[in-house]
Every structure is written in structure tokens, then in C-alpha cells.
Write a structure and sequence with these properties.
The complex is a heterotrimer of chains A (about 425), B (about 300) and C (about 290).
Chain A: H1 2-19, E1 29-36, H2 39-55, E2 60-67, H3 71-80, E3 87-91, H4 95-101, H5 113-118, H6 121-127, E4 128-129, E5 132-133, E6 135-136, E7 139-140, E8 143-148, H7 149-154, H8 169-181, E9 189-190, H9 199-210, H10 219-223, H11 226-240, E10 260-264, H12 268-275, E11 279-282, E12 293-294, E13 298-302, H13 309-319, H14 322-332, E14 335-336, H15 339-343, H16 355-362, E15 366-367, H17 375-390, H18 395-412, H19 420-429
Helix pairs in contact in A: 2-14, 9-11, 17-18
Chain B: H1 13-41, H2 60-67, H3 69-100, H4 107-119, H5 122-132, H6 140-148, H7 165-190, H8 194-202, H9 207-235, H10 239-244, H11 256-266, H12 270-301
Helix pairs in contact in B: 1-12, 3-7, 3-9, 4-7, 7-9, 9-12, 11-12
Chain C: H1 3-45, H2 50-55, H3 71-79, H4 82-113, H5 119-130, H6 135-147, H7 154-158, H8 165-176, H9 181-188, H10 193-204, H11 206-221, H12 225-230, H13 239-246, H14 254-274, H15 276-289
Helix pairs in contact in C: 3-14, 4-8, 4-11, 5-8, 8-11, 9-10, 11-15, 13-14
The chains are: A alpha/beta (about 425), B mainly alpha (about 300), C mainly alpha (about 290).
């Protein structure tokens, strides 16, 4: 009984100490939330924060890592209890829903013109909603097919030189068959099926656009259009013919198990290390309307919760300086988000190993994912549909189901109207400046 | 010297209220209140973070979830799960308890071994079994089945196979839970008076009839209790599904709780999530009441 | 039956019994092996280099590490703050345990041994609340906690679980069976109700406290759902959530995951092995109460 008393006192003490973290932001401190990505990305952002904090004394940045799996859920529920930090990182097109909810402030007037002009057009396009800029990304993304030249040559497969002569759907299937013949377990394609979350929309919606999907369609109609059905049926075909690796570990391409890997810029370093000069970066197959690929990536926004938006902008502008942009691009091999940085990048300047990605961005061969507040619902629904299709369920039925679910959501949200509160909040933060 | 304090020996109201206050406040704030909130929310269209005003929707949420194929599939899965796991786990637990109910040496060791999985957190169990169920010929489960079927078994991807995913989850659930039931049944077995067995032996009955006419009837209440608890636990199934399959493939392994959390936490639809949990509670209530009825029948016979 | 026949009959019986014994043992050993296979697999896997964990899983090599190495354990500490998770689990669980024992035992005693207005009504309500499993209130509770801004705190992970209807009931059934003389003696000595409880009742109620402690511990240590919903970053995450997140953290290395699992379960396993008797008694007693 005495031990109970002693234990209770000890626990009370422990609780006090643990609860006494300084949650209240001191003057000049801004809270920043970042997703937990690859190890190199994590380290780089930590170093960037250190450099920023060391470079001046007015603003101090406190960084928090959020696991990627439930990132959106965390952001959403934080916004309800006014627990949002000053600065959040948001993945691609999820940003429009946050803007619609009124969580982000417009930053066109806060961002300096030089920084604005330096940004890639795709970055500005990504961060703009209804005419106002709400977010900036320090990098854009690249998506393609990684392969080993020697394997392709051994199987007699033609190697495309660029986006214009990408494989057609038929050629791609033939290539898979030819590669499978040389592979003992016949699994030659890595589609990263162990991913959860945004990967599926990012990696496979371009195929739908390539098959003729239109960007001006409402999202639900887009998802069960004939182009969508065609594209998904192709994918299902590859899986059912046994060409696709089940991805139990994360290493099917590096270990040499598969010849082809669907991958993004973030895979480049691991793959380059494993394949060396044998590595080739190829465009996605062309399903009829030209080979299309994805764009968009993590971007930074300032929340309405922030008491010091000007300090937050200082941090963002720091991240957008050429050497900082290059530092992050070096860590994750992403396409640098500013024109000055691209010019200085070994990978992305003309002739660089990843110049395919930058050229696709600059030549308009990329398509952004649907830019709508309904995007969050769309992407989680699509993820589920993809899983169903992967497991052999009928493509048309699955996509119809998805389209209906999204349509119902749009209806429930009354079409995502421009709620009055949004413009009110922005007037507050923009002072008297009109747009 | 005896100092008798004057007290109203029949009324301890003051002190009693103080004693129950902490626990009852906790129960009120964290059990009763949320549940009432769930009821209320389930009649609205509340979505966390939506800037649109909240609306009263009557029974719309309930109508929707009953029409939702995912939810119906989840109910089906929970039902299937209970139908398979409850008898299997109970019979297995009974068998193990019978085996352990001998005055042989080392029974305590075996009892510990069988109970060990219970101590493992379900999250850890899920992670371990994910790798046991790995696809490909290299995986432990595939190799084991190949061995047991003398080479006839083809490697399958358990957790992504619409037909095998749910049984896979059932197996690991049984593995984790058998020890718990076994211990309860063992205690029940040990409380049966040996007198009964001795009398039966004198009368010349064999082991099987002793089992049928003494053991089983005496264990009836214990078995019913064990069955009830396992049934309710099987409706609460969430951790393993979330970690191993996310409810997939398709809806093959989704459960009622998985749907509720998906709605409330992943999609921010508080109202839908609340409706699902209220429905879930009603189901649990019905099952519990059914058990009460069964047991009462037994008591009146005695 | 003459002497010879009866001796033969006795030795036949004992042969039969010996055979039965052997059969039982064999069966038990086989079943015990099946049961512990996953555990052995994890332990051995934690000692192997990552690539071998998967590839050797299909052979008996899964259980025999050829080069024992603690590299995976080292990796875990490098990649995540394991110590923090462990501390979190410990803090959360022991607080729930201690506060719960105090609050629930007090309530159970008041229901069992005191007479007061409102006792029957409140007792019925407590019994009714026993049916509500946590899942039935997880969603609205999440909403409540979020509105209060208590997300991502220890408090949110502790307070909702302190008061427990089932624990109150367990204490109640135990206290109800205690002899009345205990309190009468204390009252005559002039002790207040609280004093009586602390100095007279509690010392003889060790079995009840042990049972409730163990059952609470068993249910709370593995708690996953709630921490999933309520925590945001690593600072206050407990172990079960941590391993689930760790399992998906790139790069995915199974050896590391196995060693995380071993470190996560070793303490509870140790506690369990030490207090086996209490565990078994505690669990078994739920059956008799039901």
C-alpha cells in the first residue's frame, strides 16, 4: 500500500515533466510539420532548419516529423482543434481541400517578386487555387520507368530515346513478355504495390491521361471514362499475366529481381547505386494520346493558425534559395523547383541522367492530378479501386463504384462552394492589399 | 479506552459519493458522454474540418451504411469470423485444457507456452504474421503447407488473395487468443468435483461418457461465457486488419470497426463513423442479451 | 480372478496408462512447437542480416541463425527513438494502472460495503456500461479530445482508461464476499471509512488488486487503435503504434522489424514469466465471475 503511494507520487512527477513541454510558441518561434520521407530527405530538412536558425536570430524553426501514412488525417484533425502549426508541408493536390477548408492563407503578397519569378511554372500552377497562390514547392517531381540497358538489350527490346518515342501499349506488353522469358520467376515489373497512399494516383493517373482522359472533365466522370477503363485493364493484364512483383520488401529493382521499375525521382539514387551506368530512365508507355507523366509534389503552405506569417515566409524563401533547393534536390533527386537551380543541377541540365524528367516538365508532357477540393476523396477512393483491380475484380464495375462514391461526396459537400469564411480570413492576413 | 464516534450507521452517503466520484466521473466523461455524443452525431452530417455548417440528417447515415457494400461486407466478415473462430478457438482451448488437466509433470511449462501468445500485443502479432504469410515459395506458411500437402501446395499471396486473406487473419487470431480461453476452461475443469468422476467410474462408465455426461454439462456455463467473450472480441477486430491488409483485398477482410475508423479518421466523416459504432454497439448488445437468455435457461433447469 | 490373472490385469492397465501418458506428452510437445514457431522465428530473425530473414523463412534455417549478429538491434536505435516509445508505453500504462486501481477499488468498495442514496441506480448504470467496448466510443471520444485540443498528449492516452466498469465490478464481487467483521472491528476502534478501507480492507484484498492489475495491464499494453487516432508525432507514441509505423518506414528491413518486436515484447514476457501464477489466476477468475 505504501508502494502504491510512492508509485503514485513518482508517476505524478513524471507526468508533470512530460507535460511541461513548451507547447506555447515563444516569440519568434514557428512550428513546422514535415512528412517523414526517405532518410536522406529527413536529414536534409533537419540540416536546412539548423542552417536557417543559425543564419539569423529573429526566427526560430521547430520541426516535427509526421509519419506519411496518416499524414492527411493528422492535418485534418489538427485543423479542427486549432492545433495546426505555422507551416505545413502538403502533398501535391491535397492542398486544394485545405485551401477550401480555410486552413491556408494566400501568400502572393507575402512572397517577394524575385522568388516568385524564379519558380517553375508547374510549381506556381500547383499552388494556385481560384487565382490566388497558396503554396510553394521547393521541388517538382519526375516519374518514369527505370531499367537496366543490358537486360533490355538481352531481351531484344527497343529502348526509347525520349518521350516522343515511348513504347505503345502493345509494345510494352511485348517487352514484358520478352523480359519474362529471361527471368526465372517471370516477374519483371515493379509497380510498388506495397505503397499506401498517394502513390497510386500519382503513378497511374498519367496512363489514363495518356489513354485520352481529359483534364476538363469533372473528377467522377474522369475516373470511369473509357480511357480510365482501358488504362486500368492494361495494368490488370500485366498483373494477371504474372509479370508484376508483389513487393514484399522494398528492393525488387535494386536486387535485380525485376528488369523494369515504375518509379519516381526519389528512387533514382538507390537505383543508380545498384545499376550504375547500366541504368536507363524511360518514359511511361503511350496509350494513344502521347506518353504522359505526372507532376507535382510536396509543397509548403502557411496556415491561418500562424501568428507570424511574415516569419514563416522568411523560412520558405530561405528554402527557395538556389543552394538550398539544390541541397534538397541532391538528397531526393527531385526536379529543383526554381529555374536558377535547374541550370546549376548536374542531373537535370541538358544531358543529365534525369533530364527526361526536367524536359517533360518544360515541354508540357506532364499532367497535373485533378486540382479540386474533392481530390482527397478521389485519391483514397482510387487507391481502393486500384487494390481491387490488382486483385482481379472487374475494372469497369470497380471504377463505376469509385465514380459514384466521389459524386456522392461532391454532392454532400454541396459542390465545394467558396465558403465566405475563406475570403474573410484572407482579408485579415493580407491587410488592405487587394488582389 | 473506546471512543465511539457518533455516526449514522445506516447512511454513508457523504463518504460514498467521495469514493465513487473519481471512477464515476471518469466513466461519465469518457464512456457515457462519448456514447451519447455518438448517438447525436449519427443523426447529423458532421465532417471534421468542413467549413460548411452542420446539418440534421435524421436516419440518413444509417440508411447509407446499410446500403454501403463495404459495410455490409464488413458485417459479413465479422459474422464469418465469429462463426469460424468461436467454435474453433473454444474447441481447441477445451482440447488443450483437457490435455493439461492431468497430474503429469511439466504441465505448468506447457500451460505457459500456450498462454504466451496472449501476452503479445496484437500489433506485434500482426507484424510477425505478415512475414509468415509472405508470398512466394520462400515464405514460411507456403513452405509449411507444401510440406503438409506433400508438395501439392502452390505458393499463394495470402494477404492479397480475396479467398485466403480472411482465413489468414482468423488463424493468427486463434493463435493469439487460444491461451486465454484455455486458462479459463482449465480453471472450470479443475473446479469440477472429482467425486462425480469417481462415482461414474464405479458405475463403469468409460472416458467418453464421463466426458459427455459430466465434464460438458459442468463446463456449460464456462463454455458459454468463453463463447460470448470470443464472439464480442471478434466483432471488435481491428488491429490486425488495419496493419496487415487495410481491409483489402477489395473488402475481403474489412470489419465493422475498420469501416468505422476509416470513415471517422481517414475520411473525417464523424457522423458516418458514429453511426457505424452505434450499430456495432447494438449488435454487441443483442449478442449479450442472447447469452443471458441461454444461461438463464440453464439456471432454471437446475 | 486368481492372483496371476489379477497381476496381469494390473500390469496391462499400467502399460495402457504409460502409453496414454506418452501420447499426451507427444501431442503436447507437437502443439507447443506449433505455438512457439512464430515466436522462435522472430527471435532468430532479429539476429540475422535483413536479406536472409525473408529468403530463409521457408527452411529450417529460419530457426537457426548462421551468424548471430546484433546489427539489427543497433539499426533500430539508429533509425528511431526506441527508448522514447518504451518510456511512453511504460508511463502511460503504469499511470493507467495505478490511478485505475485506486479509483476503481474505491468505487467497488463503496458499492459493495456502504449504504448510500443512489447506490442501486448508479450500480445498475455501471453494469450497463460494462457492455460498451472501447470501440463503441472511440469515434466520438476522438472528436471530443480533438475539440479540446488534447491531441498528441499523454493525458489523452491515460485518462479515458482509468475508470473501468469491469474493474469496478471485479472489485465489487470481491469486496462483497469479505466478512463483515473486518469493518465492524475497525469502526469500534474509531476508524473512518477511508481509514478502514486503506488499512483493513486493502491488505486482505491483494488477490483482487493483482487480478485487476494484470487484466488492465494485458488489455492496455497492446493498445493500438486509440494511440493511432490520437497521436501525431513520435513524442508520445507507445510501442504498438511505433512498430506498426516502423514496419512501413522506408527502407523496409525485416531484420530491424524483428528486433524491434523482440525488444518490444521482452519486458512483458519477462513480467509474465515472473508472475505467471497471478496472470493465470487473474484470467481464470474472469470465467468464474462471468
Amino acid at each position: 500500500m505504501r508502494t502504491l503511494r510512492r508509485l503514485s507520487k513518482l508517476i505524478l512527477l513524471l507526468l508533470c515533466f512530460s507535460g511541461c513541454r513548451t507547447k506555447a510558441t515563444q516569440e519568434g518561434t514557428i512550428q513546422v510539420w514535415v512528412h517523414t520521407g526517405q532518410a536522406a530527405e529527413r536529414q536534409t530538412i533537419e540540416q536546412q532548419v539548423d542552417r536557417f536558425n543559425a543564419s539569423q536570430t529573429e526566427v526560430k524553426v521547430e520541426l516535427t516529423f509526421i509519419p506519411e501514412g496518416s499524414y492527411n488525417a493528422q492535418l485534418q484533425s489538427a485543423s479542427v482543434s486549432n492545433a495546426l502549426p505555422d507551416v505545413v508541408e502538403i502533398d501535391g493536390p491535397s492542398v486544394y481541400n485545405y485551401i477550401w477548408q480555410g486552413n491556408l492563407i494566400a501568400i502572393n503578397t507575402l512572397l517577394s517578386p524575385q522568388v516568385r519569378q524564379d519558380l517553375l511554372p508547374s510549381i506556381i500552377n500547383q499552388g494556385t487555387y481560384k487565382g490566388r497562390l497558396y503554396s510553394v514547392g521547393t521541388f517538382d517531381s519526375g516519374l518514369g520507368l527505370y531499367s537496366r540497358r543490358s537486360r533490355l538489350e538481352a531481351a531484344g527490346v527497343r529502348i526509347p530515346k525520349g518521350n516522343r518515342d515511348a513504347w505503345t501499349a502493345k509494345e510494352f506488353n511485348q517487352a514484358l513478355a520478352a523480359l519474362a522469358q529471361k527471368d526465372p520467376d517471370r516477374q519483371v515489373l515493379d509497380l510498388k504495390l506495397n505503397s499506401r497512399g498517394e502513390w497510386y494516383s500519382y503513378a497511374f493517373l498519367p496512363l489514363i491521361y495518356s489513354a485520352g482522359g481529359r483534364t476538363d472533365q469533372p473528377v467522377d466522370r474522369f475516373l470511369n471514362s473509357s480511357s480510365a477503363v482501358f488504362a486500368m485493364q492494361q495494368i490488370q493484364g500485366w498483373i494477371q499475366k504474372g509479370y508484376v512483383d508483389p513487393n514484399l520488401d522494398d528492393a525488387s529493382f535494386e536486387s535485380g529481381r525485376v528488369a523494369l521499375a515504375w518509379g519516381g525521382h526519389w528512387n533514382y539514387q538507390t537505383y543508380a547505386k545498384a545499376a550504375g551506368s547500366d541504368l536507363v530512365v524511360l518514359p511511361l508507355p503511350n496509350f494513344g494520346s502521347g506518353s504522359k507523366t505526372a507532376q507535382g509534389s510536396w509543397n509548403w503552405g502557411i496556415t491561418t493558425n500562424s501568428k507570424s506569417p511574415k516569419s514563416a515566409v522568411r523560412f520558405l524563401e530561405f528554402l527557395l534559395q538556389p543552394n538550398e533547393v539544390l541541397a534538397m534536390a541532391a538528397a531526393n533527386s527531385a526536379v529543383p523547383g526554381t529555374k536558377r537551380a535547374i541550370a546549376q543541377s548536374r542531373l537535370y541540365a541538358k544531358g543529365g541522367s534525369l533530364s527526361l524528367f526536367s524536359s517533360q516538365l518544360l515541354l508540357g508532357q506532364t499532367v497535373s492530378r485533378p486540382q479540386t477540393p474533392a481530390y482527397l476523396v478521389m485519391t483514397s477512393t482510387f487507391e481502393q479501386s486500384f487494390a481491387d483491380i490488382r486483385n482481379g475484380l472487374d475494372v469497369k464495375t470497380t471504377l463505376d463504384r469509385a465514380a459514384t462514391a466521389i459524386a456522392i461526396d461532391i454532392q454532400d459537400n454541396q459542390g465545394y462552394p467558396d465558403v465566405h469564411s475563406i475570403s474573410k480570413r484572407h482579408d485579415r492576413s493580407e491587410n488592405t492589399k487587394t488582389q | 479506552m473506546i471512543d465511539l464516534k457518533t455516526r449514522k450507521l445506516n447512511d454513508d452517503t457523504h463518504i460514498a459519493i467521495c469514493m465513487v466520484a473519481p471512477a464515476l466521473t471518469g466513466l461519465f466523461l469518457f464512456v457515457a458522454l462519448p456514447f451519447s455524443l455518438a448517438l447525436i452525431l449519427s443523426f447529423t452530417n458532421l465532417r471534421l474540418g468542413s467549413p460548411l455548417p452542420i446539418q440534421f440528417w435524421g436516419f440518413e447515415q444509417y440508411r447509407r451504411i446499410w446500403l454501403d457494400p463495404s459495410f455490409r461486407h464488413a458485417l459479413l466478415n465479422n459474422g464469418l469470423f465469429a462463426l469460424v473462430v468461436v467454435p474453433t478457438q473454444t474447441i481447441l482451448a477445451l482440447g488443450l485444457a483437457l490435455l493439461l488437466n492431468r497430474p503429469l509433470k511439466g504441465m505448468a511449462v506447457f500451460r505457459t507456452l500456450f498462454f504466451m501468445p496472449v501476452v503479445f500485443p496484437m500489433a506485434l502479432v500482426s507484424v510477425i504474421w505478415t512475414i509468415i504469410y509472405a508470398p512466394g515459395a520462400d515464405s514460411m506458411m507456403n513452405a509449411f503447407l507444401k510440406f503438409m500437402t506433400l508438395g501439392l501446395w502452390q505458393p499463394r499471396d495470402f494477404l492479397h488473395d480475396p479467398d485466403l486473406a480472411l482465413p489468414a487473419v482468423m488463424l493468427l487470431s486463434i493463435w493469439q487468443g487460444v491461451g486465454f480461453q484455455m486458462v479459463i476452461i482449465l480453471a472450470g475443469l479443475q473446479s469440477i468435483p472429482t467425486l462425480l468422476y469417481e462415482a461414474a467410474a464405479i458405475d463403469g462408465s468409460n472416458q467418453w461418457s464421463q466426458f459427455r455426461y459430466i465434464t460438458l454439462p459442468q463446463l456449460r456455463n464456462t463454455l458459454v461465457f468463453v463463447g460470448l467473450v470470443t464472439t464480442i472480441l471478434s466483432f471488435r477486430l481491428f488491429d490486425s486488419v488495419r496493419i496487415m491488409t487495410g481491409g483489402g483485398p477489395g473488402d475481403a477482410t474489412t470489419t465493422v470497426m475498420n469501416e468505422a475508423i476509416k470513415a471517422a479518421f481517414d475520411q473525417q466523416k464523424m457522423a458516418k463513423g458514429s453511426a457505424i459504432t452505434v450499430t456495432f454497439f447494438l449488435i454487441v448488445l443483442i449478442i449479450t442479451l442472447l447469452q443471458r437468455v441461454l444461461v438463464r435457461e440453464e439456471r432454471t433447469i437446475e | 480372478m486368481n492372483n496371476l490373472e489379477s497381476t496381469q490385469w494390473i500390469s496391462k492397465r499400467s502399460n495402457q496408462q504409460w502409453l496414454e501418458k506418452m501420447a499426451s506428452y507427444l501431442l503436447l510437445i507437437f502443439l507447443a512447437f506449433l505455438f512457439t514457431v512464430p515466436i522462435l522465428f522472430v527471435v532468430m530473425g532479429s539476429l540475422k542480416p535483413d536479406e536472409l530473414v525473408l529468403s530463409e523463412a521457408s527452411t529450417l534455417k529460419a530457426f537457426i541463425p548462421q551468424q548471430v549478429s546484433l546489427q539489427n538491434y543497433h539499426d533500430v536505435f539508429e533509425r528511431v527513438e526506441f527508448g522514447r516509445f518504451f518510456f511512453n508505453s511504460l508511463l502511460i500504462n503504469s499511470t493507467i494502472l495505478v490511478l485505475g486501481l485506486i479509483a476503481n477499488s474505491l468505487a467497488g468498495y463503496a458499492f459493495a460495503r456502504l449504504r448510500w442514496r443512489g447506490r442501486s441506480l448508479l450500480f445498475v448504470i455501471v453494469i450497463a456500461l460494462m457492455i460498451l467496448p472501447f470501440e463503441a466510443i472511440a469515434v466520438p471520444l476522438f472528436f471530443q479530445i480533438t475539440l479540446l485540443g488534447l491531441r498528441n498528449t499523454y493525458i489523452a492516452q491515460i485518462l479515458p482508461f482509468v475508470a473501468n466498469a469491469f474493474s469496478i465490478y471485479l472489485f465489487y464481487t470481491f469486496f462483497v464476499d469479505l466478512p463483515k467483521e473486518l469493518e465492524e472491528a475497525a469502526y469500534i476502534d474509531g476508524a473512518s471509512t477511508l481509514q478502514t478501507f486503506v488499512e483493513v480492507i486493502m491488505p486482505v484484498s491483494k488477490p483482487a488488486f493483482a487480478t485487476v492489475a494484470i487484466l488492465t495491464f494485458l488489455t492496455q499494453w497492446g493498445s493500438f487503435l486509440w494511440s493511432l487516432m490520437i497521436t501525431i508525432d513520435e513524442k508520445v507514441r507507445p510501442l504498438p503504434l511505433a512498430i506498426a509505423t516502423f514496419q512501413t518506414l522506408p527502407p523496409i528491413q525485416w531484420g530491424d522489424i524483428m528486433s524491434f518486436g523482440v525488444m518490444m515484447v521482452a519486458p512483458i514476457l519477462a513480467v509474465f514469466l515472473l508472475f505467471q501464477k497471478w496472470f493465470v489466476k487473474g484470467v481464470a477468475s474472469t470465467g468464474t465471475k462471468g
